């Protein structure tokens, strides 16, 4: 679902209309501000204001919103505001990372299960693959 991008009340055009997960992952953030960027979903952009939806209020506290706004302002070269609301999220960096890890895990398991050498060893020695023992190669 693409976020709605609308002009601000003062007529300022939207500063961003792209993919929030890719932008959030690229920002040089640490700590709670990074968690806010990675676990939040872009609800909409209104002028130069990013309205984010966070899964829990705790990640919007402790100056995280201000540090995220500062990183976005530096990224765009213009002052950007961030507002947060709390609610269910789905299109986040964290969700994308979890999906990618799950896909890599399934691919690794499928590769082992279909490998003729592995199948030969299992038949010859009466073995079995221990569930959860297969790990994808490190990137």
TrEMBL record:
Residues 19-130 form the DNA polymerase III tau subunit domain. Gene3D superfamilies: DNA polymerase III, tau subunit, domain V. GO terms for molecular function: DNA-directed DNA polymerase activity. Pfam families: DNA_pol3_tau_5 (PF12170). It comes from the Bacteria. It comes from Cupriavidus gilardii J11. This is DNA polymerase-3 subunit gamma/tau.
């Amino acid at each position: 679902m693409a976020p709605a991008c609308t002009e601000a009340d003062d007529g300022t055009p939207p500063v961003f209309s792209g993919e929030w997960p890719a932008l959030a992952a690229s920002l040089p953030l640490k700590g709670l501000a990074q968690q806010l960027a990675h676990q939040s979903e872009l609800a909409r952009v209104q002028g130069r204001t990013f309205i984010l939806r966070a899964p829990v209020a705790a990640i919007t506290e402790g100056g995280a919103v201000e540090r995220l706004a500062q990183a976005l302002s530096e990224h765009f070269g213009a002052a950007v505001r961030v507002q947060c609301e709390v609610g269910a999220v789905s299109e986040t960096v964290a969700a994308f990372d979890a999906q990618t890890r799950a896909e890599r895990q399934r691919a690794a398991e499928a590769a082992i299960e279909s490998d003729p050498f592995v199948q030969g060893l299992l038949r010859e020695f009466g073995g079995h693959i221990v569930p959860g023992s297969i790990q994808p190669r490190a990137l």
